[in-house]
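Re: the 129-residue chain
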Amino acid sequence: MRIVRRTLAVLLAALFIAPAAQAQTHVIGTSALATAVQERVSQDQSDRDAILSLLQRAEVRQIAASAGVSLEKAQAAVSTLEGQDLRDFAAQARNVQNDLAGGASTVVISTTTIIIVLLLVLLIVVIAD
């Protein structure tokens, strides 16, 4: 009788453990996950670099000085940006960079407006944190 009980106990334990062991399988491998994380970190750094590059331009410094905006605070705020805000600001910064680099004279007002808005939003982010 003891053998039957032990056999039954081992069998039941195996039946309860089997689904739990099978549930441990992952949909994505750890190497794919590490690659995805590295790509996101790289993209975020690229976005921050685009914003910082715009903030270092002479035109932006001149506009910030005339508006009384501190570029140092704006540059410090860039490191606090993340997610969709970071991507949106980086896209705007890249557009402004392209406009300024191309010498487009018809977008001076919109470029200036974008720069001022970008600087003000960065300052708001710094103040909010």
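The chain has a mean pLDDT of 78.
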